[in-house]
Amino acid sequence: MKYKKTFLVLAMIVAGLFIASCGDDDDDDETLTILYWQAPTIANPYLAGGTKDVDASALILEPLANYDEEGRLVPRLAGEIPTVDNGGVSEDTTTITWKLKEGILWSDGTPLTVEDIIFTHRYLCSLPGTEDVCELVPIGNVDPVEDSPLSIKITFTAPVIYPYTLFVGASSPILQKAQFANCVGEAAQECVTENLYPVGTGAYKITDFSVSESDTETNSTLTYEINEHFRATDRLFPKVVIKGGGDAVTAARAVLERGEADYAWNLQIDPQTLEFLKEIGEGTVRPAFASTVEHLVINFSNPDPDLGDRRSEWSNGNNPHPFLTDPAVRRALSLAIDRGHIAEQLYGAAGRATCNIIPAPLQYASTNNDDCLTQNIEQARTLLAQAGWIPGADGIREKDGVRLEILYQTSTNLVRQETQELIKQWWRGIGAETELKNINAGVYFDSNPENPDNIWRFYADVEMYANGTSSIDPQDHLASWLTTEIPGPENDWLGSNVSRWSNQEYDDLHEELKRTPIGPDRENLVIRMNDMLVQSHVVIPLVDRASVSAFGNSLKGVRVNGWDSDLWNIHEWYRE
Asked: Over the stretch 236-290, which tens digit does the pLDDT of each residue have?
């Protein structure tokens, strides 16, 4: 992370050059104040270190289209969303053609052209870690349409059922070629002024970017003013300030208790405190749900330390787990859990109980598993007894000399440890003994193949974490359970199928999904695959997690969004 440290120092130096351009004497009623307890340190999402940086750029830079709060595509720089029906997507789904709105200007007054889009693609493909997208859309496959100066055609190397990823969403905006021309490849990291003060087509432009750093924290203040060349400026705030740093509780109090700020982002605080602050009445608390699911992962391989190098190896199904390969055990473990209690007591507005690994968008959400919302300890006990799992003298069930003793691991996190304690208690009630283990998140999610404590090595029986789809379309996420994705020494333990579950029918359905166009047939396939995972208890979904934000009562037009930037529609915000 040497680059980030160097960039931060340069950021502070450059920020000092711009301080004179922004005064502090604006009327408070004309200033929109936004709090991020994680401090933005850059305004270029292609070099972002997290959501806070993407959001800082969302006021300035725009993509061709955004996702709205329901996960629907809405045009931004484009005049409409290309489809097969309107001719924007080819019948064979190998091309998509975007048509820009007329008259869009950069904040320096120059016109947006398709050359800026072509350049942005070249810029993106010059950065490390972009190999996947750039293999599908190699440089040269983004070109202006002949005789149409406002149209851009993207040609894929193979048919793409869901072509709305490149230049869609706040993390994939268009950069100005004139500004970033010398920032390609290795030079990208050294373009400090460009990355802190990008020329954009959005509603605002940055006038000051101040960063301070200590041994324990980073703080930043970003000041914006209206981009006078934006399409509609009549309802914009004369000044916007994003203050980064601090903690979530302090941010929540500033909005909900003291009314000192207009908006606070991602309030990861306990539901009781949040509810207390909400009741004061100064503001509104709003969750933004998307597809992130807190869930249990079941290990289908044997994690016994006595196996040595074969520990938790799939070995083509020849190293099965001693009891979790029994469907009755997996189902009983699921039946014993009170998901509603976990969601209400530990997440509050930030979570809702779910029985699906694909909870959204709505058209992909199954209703076939809703019985899991009701805890049933007695049914779980009966199921285990019928499968031959009999309680021993200490109440722990046994079968053929195997005891139901579970090692259950997750990352170190207060909510996760409280979830573990609840589930341990419920599993004890059906005759399963549970040992709890929590691992520092930096270790737990560290992909080093030599790391024995990460989620991929899975040296436990059950583990817990959250993830979701990386786009509106769940195809890539559902690929996480393909046989080819099982972690092992041959792929440095980095396959996404950490359960080591292999099912040929599921693999075949995913191949069919890759060929099935958007519509009812595709939706039905997604639901079938979700149901296979859930009803086979490969994963045990617990909570559909949201990002919770708060905003003052006078702030209107806010549409919190789990699919895109929180600030995706800031040009529509106003004070009443």
From this structure: 999 999 999 999 999 999 999 999 999 999 998 889 999 999 999 999 999 999 9
Q: How far is Cα 573 from Cα 135, in angstroms, rounded to an integer?
A: 39
Contact (CB, 8 A) for 272 and 249? no
Tell which residue, 423, 488, 520, 519, has the closest CA to residue 462. 423
pLDDT in tens, 164-207: 989 999 999 999 999 999 999 999 999 999 999 999 999 999 99
- Note the pTM of the prediction, 2 decimals: 0.81
Judge residue 12's burial from the number of C-beta atoms within 10 Å of its C-beta, 0-12 exposed, 13-18 middle, 19 or more buried: middle
Which residues lie below 8 Å from residue 344, measured CB to CB, with a gap of 6+?
A: 271
- Nearest Cα neighbor of 241 from 549, 20, 59, 33 is 33
Under a CB-based contact definition with an 8 Å cutoff, are residues 571 and 234 in contact? Answer: no
Buried b (16+ CB within 10 A) or exposed e, 540-573: bbbbbbbbbbbbbeebeebebbbbbbbbbbbbeb
Locus of tokens 């870690």: 129
> Residue 48's closest CA among 154, 142, 124?
124
In angstroms, rounded to a whole number, what is the distance separating the alpha carbons of residues 297 and 321?
13
Is 106 within 8 Å of 180 (Cβ atoms)? no
Which residues does residue 390 pair with via DSSP β-bridges, in sequence order?
398
The Cα–Cα gap between 343 and 353 comes to 6
Rounded Cα gap, residues 145 and 264, in angstroms: 43
Query: Residue 27: which pLDDT band, with cuts at 50, 70 and 90?
Result: low
Q: What is the DSSP letter of 331?
A: H
Q: Among residues 559, 46, 4, 571, which one has the least CA distance to residue 286?
A: 559
In terms of phi and psi (left: phi > 0; alpha: psi -120 to 50; beta: otherwise), the region of 487 is beta
Biggest CA pair distance of the chain = 83
Structure tokens that stand for 99 in this block: 């048509």
CA distance linking residue 125 with residue 133, whole number of Å: 8
Instruction: Quote the DSSP letter at residue 313.
Output: -
Beta bridge partners of 264: 35, 550
Who's near 539: CB < 8 A, 6+ residues apart?
295, 296, 297, 298, 357, 499, 533
DSSP labels, 181-234: TT--GGGGGG-HHHHHS---SSSEEEEEEEEEE-SS-EEEEEEEEE-TTSS--T
Which SS3 state, helix, strand or coil, does residue 394 take? coil
Whether the per-residue pLDDT at 493 is higher than 50: the answer is: yes
Place of tokens 């999610």: 445
Name the pLDDT band for 216 (thresholds 50, 70, 90): confident
Pick from 541, 184, 171, 484: nearest CA to 342? 541
The tokens describing 183, both together, are: 């920032």
Residue 129: CB partners within 8 Å, gap ≥ 6?
none
Contacts with 425 (C-beta within 8 Å, 6 or more apart), sequence order: none
> Which amino acid, 433?
E
Terminal CA-CA length for the chain = 44
